[in-house]
Write a structure and sequence with these properties.
By secondary structure, the chain is of the alpha/beta class. Helix content is about 45%, strand content about 10%. Strand 4, helix 6 and strand 5 form a beta-alpha-beta unit. The chain starts with a helix and ends in an 11-residue tail after the last strand.
C-alpha cells in the first residue's frame, strides 16, 4: 500500500488495477497517510484558501427518472417549484455582499429553463456582477445549447458522470439515458472552453471496487477542473429507498486520492458529505477538499429540492450562517476567501 501511495504522489497516476488495490486496501493508516499528502498538495497550490460557491437550486422539475434521485419524474410526492428570474437575481443580490463571487445555478432537467431563459438570466447576472463566475448544473443538453449558454457568459458547468462503467450506469438510470451521451456532453463542454466538473456517487447501489477504480482512472485521464463526489444517500420515494448509504470515511479517502492525483483541481466538500456526518465537510477539507457550497436558495424551497433523505437545510450549509462556517474552518486552519476561486493552472 505504501508503495502504491508513494507512486501516486510522485507520478500522479496509477493503473486501474492499482487504484482498485488502493481502495480495497483502505485502512486507518492508509487514510491518514493519504489525507496528509492531500493536504500538502492542496496547500502547495491554493494555500489555506477555501472557496465558497453560492448554490441556487432553480427548479426541482426533471424529465428524467434516475433510480436514485428524489426529484425523478415518477415521484408524485415531490412539491414541484421553479424560481423566477427575479427570485434568482434576488439570491445573487443577497449573496454578493456576503462575499460570494461564484453563483451556481443547479436544477433538474426542466424544459421550462430553455436556452432563451437561461441565457437571459446568465447574461443579467454577469451584467450586474461582472467580477463573478456563473456555474451551471442543468444536466444533459445539446452542443448548440451548451454553446449558447457559454456565449451568454457561463464560465463553468458541473455534470457528474455518476459512474464510468457502462453496466453500472445502466443499473442506476432509465434506458433512455446512456453513459455514451453523458461522456459526449462532458467532451462538448470541454471543447467549448468551460471549466468542467464531473464526479460520482460513493457506494451507490451495485457499485464495486472495480467501478470505483474505473471512476478514478477516468478522472485522471479526463482531468476536469472540478470534481464533485459524495456518498450515496437513499431517498424514501425511489426504488433505492432501502439501500444502504455510503460512508463519509470512504468518501474522504477518495477525496484524498483525487487531490494527490490532481493537485490543481477544485474539490468540494459536498452537502451530501455534510448530511451523512455532522463534521463531514470539515473532514472533507482535511482530506484535501477546498470548496464549500452554502445554499443561497430561498428558504421556502430548500426542503423541496430533496435529492436524498436527511439533506442539510439549516445551519452552516446556508448563506445566513456563513460566519459560523468561517469559524469552523478557521478552527482547523483554513480561511474562506471572497474571490471566484478559479482553477489554478500552475504546473506542480
Amino acid at each position: 500500500m505504501q508503495k502504491i501511495i508513494e507512486k501516486l504522489y510522485n507520478q500522479r497516476s496509477l493503473t486501474e488495477e492499482e487504484y482498485g488495490k488502493l481502495v480495497k486496501g483502505r485502512s486507518r493508516e492508509a487514510a491518514e497517510m493519504l489525507a496528509e499528502l492531500a493536504r500538502k498538495r492542496a496547500l502547495s497550490v491554493y494555500g489555506s484558501k477555501i472557496f465558497i460557491r453560492g448554490l441556487i437550486e432553480i427548479s426541482n422539475y426533471c424529465k428524467n427518472d434516475c433510480l436514485y434521485c428524489g426529484i425523478r419524474r415518477s415521484n408524485k410526492n415531490t412539491q414541484r417549484y421553479r424560481l423566477t428570474k427575479q427570485e434568482i437575481l434576488d439570491c445573487c443580490e443577497e449573496g454578493y455582499p456576503l462575499g460570494f463571487r461564484t453563483f451556481v445555478m443547479q436544477g433538474g432537467e426542466d424544459a421550462y429553463f430553455n436556452d432563451e431563459r437561461v441565457c437571459d438570466i446568465v447574461s443579467e447576472i454577469k451584467k450586474r456582477y461582472p467580477d463573478t463566475a456563473v456555474t451551471l448544473s442543468l444536466g444533459e443538453r445539446s452542443y448548440e445549447s451548451y454553446k449558447a449558454l457559454r456565449e451568454a457568459g457561463a464560465d463553468r458547468y458541473l455534470l457528474r458522470h455518476e459512474t464510468a462503467s457502462c453496466d453500472h450506469y445502466a443499473r442506476l438510470h432509465p434506458k433512455e439515458l446512456t453513459l455514451e451521451n453523458r461522456m459526449r456532453c462532458l467532451n462538448d463542454l470541454r471543447s467549448l472552453g468551460y471549466q468542467v466538473g464531473c464526479g460520482f456517487m460513493v457506494q451507490s447501489p451495485y457499485q464495486s471496487i472495480e467501478n470505483i477504480a474505473k471512476d478514478l482512472k477516468f478522472i485522471e485521464e479526463f482531468s476536469p477542473e472540478m470534481c464533485g463526489i459524495g456518498p450515496f444517500i437513499p431517498h424514501l420515494d425511489t426504488p433505492f429507498k432501502d439501500e444502504k448509504a455510503g460512508s463519509a470515511e470512504l468518501t474522504c479517502y477518495l477525496l484524498s486520492i483525487i487531490r494527490i492525483m490532481k493537485p490543481n483541481i477544485l474539490l468540494p466538500a459536498t452537502t451530501a458529505l455534510g448530511s451523512i456526518a455532522g463534521d463531514g465537510r470539515l473532514k472533507g477539507i482535511l482530506s484535501g477538499a477546498n470548496v464549500v457550497m452554502p445554499n443561497l436558495s430561498p428558504q421556502s424551497v430548500r426542503r423541496k429540492y430533496s435529492l436524498y433523505n436527511n439533506k442539510l437545510y439549516t445551519g452552516a450549509e446556508s448563506a445566513q450562517a456563513l460566519e459560523e462556517l468561517k469559524k469552523q474552518l478557521s478552527s482547523i486552519g483554513y480561511d474562506i476567501v471572497c474571490d471566484k476561486g478559479d482553477f489554478n493552472k500552475t504546473n506542480i
